[in-house]
Structure formats: structure tokens, C-alpha cells
């Protein structure tokens, strides 16, 4: 009998996913300040309604880059399922804008658990179910440390990454890094979407589909660190989050509460560590002279 902890056994228990794809951008005609016409690319945005065991759950507005992983990560981050193994399959059909999720044993108390919704500060006013804050005090984060050199390597990797944002703008990007020896940070997954909450959910889905993922994890986002983003990062086993933007009061409070390192305003050699500074190994000499 196979050991259930082996990568092959874990992979066998993962759900079947379709590979639905849709164009990420479209061209439109614009007129500039000189009255000249041209065509530019803008991000696509489409609605995706999630059905769980034939029950309509929620409609997400998304770019649609990896919709199956988005759906899986959404269910995980809303704590409606405990692991990817709870799901038998996820089928996405863009012709009808629907994602059909089939679970192995259903979702316990789904009506009760999805009755209360909270409108978040996410792009487009995303909403999450009321149990998101429940149980955050029980989250145990790994003892992750990151050097300042690794932080700079991470920021530089994002700068060099080809993206929809560079060609069309108007999207958020998120990435998962693992820390390596020699002050390196390896990008494992990069996702863009019209909302940062969709991008982090997609990364959560990607993590859940990995039979094995070694190394300390660091999450990066172009968007601000709200309470939702901090909680979801902690749920993914991430102890360090980095943002090109800032942090909200609730995001800061939750980061301190769970012991997460929150770094914001990270561009070039500059950054601000808002919480969990003990996880950051400072190397001030790398920052250059102070202005």
C-alpha cells in the first residue's frame, strides 16, 4: 500500500481540473489629447459564477487566467473546504461563464456558513463570507526569516517579470516566492487579475495542487495589505508578505496578532516594515546612502 504522505499519493488525491482559457486582453480604439486615434490593449474582465454540487455560491469578476485554481483557492480561503482533496473536480465553461465544483462529500452547513457576507476593500468591492476571521488565533506560522538581500532579489524579479500590467495596465499582480541559500528568492508562481483578492486566491489554489513545495514562502502583491490579504497569506502558511503599496489599520492589527511580517512601499531599495520586523534580517549597507 502506498504511503499517503508520498508526493504520488498526494497527487492522486488532487481534483481533476479543466484548462479553460480566455484572452487576457482586448484591443479598443482610443483618442488622445491631440485628437489622434489609436488602438490600445485593455484587460479583459468577465464574470464567473461558481456552483458547488449544483448549488450557486457566488459570482466573481475575473481576468480568467487560471479560473480553476481561482475557484479552488477561493473555496480554501473561505474555509469552505479543508484541502484540495475534498474536491473531485472543477469544470470551467467560459461560454456560459460558470465553474462547476463537484465535491466528494458535500460541504457541511454550507447554507449557514455562506449566509453572512462582508463587503471588503477589494477592487470592485469584493465580498467574503463571515467566517473568514474565525480561528485566526489558532494559525501557526513557520519560523521564516528573510534577509534584506533576498527582499531586494524578490523586488527585482517582479520588476523584470513580463506582465499584462505592462501591456495593458489596470490589473493587480501577486507572486509566491521561496527563499533559497545565497540570498536568493525564487518565483514559484505569478498571477494577475482585476482584483488582488482573486490573484491571491489563485495562488492558494496553485499551492493546494502541488504535491510538494519546499522552502520558506514569501507572498508579494502590488496591492495594499488589507486584513483579508493578511489572513489569506497566513492561511497559506506564509509568514512574510511584501507589497508595493501600503497597509491598512486592520491589516496591521491582524499581522501583529498572528505574528506575520508585513513589508510595504517596497520599490527599488526602499521599503517599510510595518509588523514582524524580527523576521527580517536587516543589511542596511545594501540600501545605499540615505537621501
TrEMBL record:
Predominant location = cytoplasm
Q: Which UniProt keywords apply?
A: Cytoplasm, Molybdenum cofactor biosynthesis
Lineage, top ranks: Bacteria, Pseudomonadati, Pseudomonadota, Betaproteobacteria, Burkholderiales
Tell me what organism the protein belongs to.
Answer: Variovorax ginsengisoli
**Sorted alphabetically, which Gene3D superfamilies does this protein's record hold?**
3.10.20.10, Cytidine Deaminase, domain 2
Its annotated compartments are:
Cytoplasm
State the InterPro entries in the record. Cytidine_deaminase-like (IPR016193), FdhD (IPR003786)
Q: What does this protein do?
A: Required for formate dehydrogenase (FDH) activity. Acts as a sulfur carrier protein that transfers sulfur from IscS to the molybdenum cofactor prior to its insertion into FDH.
User: What is stated as this protein's family in its record?
Assistant: Belongs to the FdhD family.
Q: Which residues form the active site?
A: 123
- A matching Pfam family: FdhD-NarQ
Does the keyword field hold Cytoplasm?
yes
Q: Does the keyword Cytoplasm apply?
A: yes
| Protein name as catalogued | Sulfur carrier protein FdhD
Protein's gene: fdhD
Amino acid at each position: 500500500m502506498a504511503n499517503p504522505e508520498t508526493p504520488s499519493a498526494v497527487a492522486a488525491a488532487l481534483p481533476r481540473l479543466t484548462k479553460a482559457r480566455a484572452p487576457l486582453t482586448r484591443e479598443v480604439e482610443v483618442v488622445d489629447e491631440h485628437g489622434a486615434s489609436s488602438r490600445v490593449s485593455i484587460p479583459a474582465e468577465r464574470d464567473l459564477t461558481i456552483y458547488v454540487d449544483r448549488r450557486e455560491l457566488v459570482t466573481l469578476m475575473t481576468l480568467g487566467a487560471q479560473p480553476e485554481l481561482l475557484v479552488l483557492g477561493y473555496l480554501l480561503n473561505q474555509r469552505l473546504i479543508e484541502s484540495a482533496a475534498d474536491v473531485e473536480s472543477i469544470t470551467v465553461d467560459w461560454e456560459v461563464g460558470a465553474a462547476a465544483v463537484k465535491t466528494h462529500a458535500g460541504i457541511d452547513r454550507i447554507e449557514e456558513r455562506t449566509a453572512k457576507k462582508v463587503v471588503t476593500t477589494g477592487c470592485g468591492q469584493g465580498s467574503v463570507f463571515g467566517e473568514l476571521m474565525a480561528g485566526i488565533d489558532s494559525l501557526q506560522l513557520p519560523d521564516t526569516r528573510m534577509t534584506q538581500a533576498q527582499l531586494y532579489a524578490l523586488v527585482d524579479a517582479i520588476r523584470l517579470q513580463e506582465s499584462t500590467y505592462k501591456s495593458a495596465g489596470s490589473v493587480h499582480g501577486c507572486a509566491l516566492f521561496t527563499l533559497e541559500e545565497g540570498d536568493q528568492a525564487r518565483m514559484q508562481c505569478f498571477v494577475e487579475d482585476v482584483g488582488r483578492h482573486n490573484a491571491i486566491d489563485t495562488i492558494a489554489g496553485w499551492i493546494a495542487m502541488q504535491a510538494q513545495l519546499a522552502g520558506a514562502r514569501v507572498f508579494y502583491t502590488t496591492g495594499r495589505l488589507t486584513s483579508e490579504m493578511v489572513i489569506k497569506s497566513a492561511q497559506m502558511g506564509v509568514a512574510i508578505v511584501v507589497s508595493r503599496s501600503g497597509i491598512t489599520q486592520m491589516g496591521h492589527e491582524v499581522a501583529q496578532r498572528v505574528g506575520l511580517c508585513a513589508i510595504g512601499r517596497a520599490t527599488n531599495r526602499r521599503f517599510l516594515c510595518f509588523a514582524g520586523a524580527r523576521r527580517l534580517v536587516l543589511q542596511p549597507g545594501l540600501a545605499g546612502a540615505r537621501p
